[in-house]
Amino acid sequence: MRSPNPRLWSTKAKAINLGVLLLVLVGGAILFARLSHNPWPQSLAAVVALSSLVATAVAAYNAFARSRRKDTLAAFSLWSDKHYPVRVALSKQLGSHRISREQALALVTAAPLNDKNGAPLSQEDKQQAREQICEVLNGLERLATGVNLGIYDERVLRKIGGTIIVRTYERFEPYIRARHSEAAAEGQQSKAYEQLAILVKILDMPRLDATRKNMRDDIDRGRLEALR
Hints:
228 residues; single chain
């Protein structure tokens, strides 16, 4: 099966496609000449000029796409490298799984915050944990904003960091929800990390689709077994 990426085609495949393109151009020029009653060499020149414009536009788009992918790689690598020690520290303190509702509420209120073993943390450690969580999520929010604005490539981000972004969001989602509810209780409207929530839905869509498919398959099998 031929790769969809022309850069990965064999030399023979490239030559064949180039030959087909030339035949299309010549055929188009002859057809245009007959329809417009112009000499076919002039028509060929017009078609070639138009093709040149199209080729220039395609080249410009490819250059933009390459730059966008490169920027996406650089941005995610910067976030990952910068926040790796912070994420490790949070895992040691609060655990590597989804934080509890009690921990989330403690992070946005004056209630004491317990570590992963249930021991209360000092006010200094609590403040540090809250700042570290905000630092991690703020970095992801900037990445998400870049994707939603078309600055970064969502497909590249899914390949190199989709899993870690989704898991990080899910891990601290109780804290985000607690921030929203606390803001609502104070009569404020909070939109904290809404761009990140959108990105997570986009990145997690293939897994959700697969889950739905598996559920449908299980239902179909159940129905077949019930009919037997």
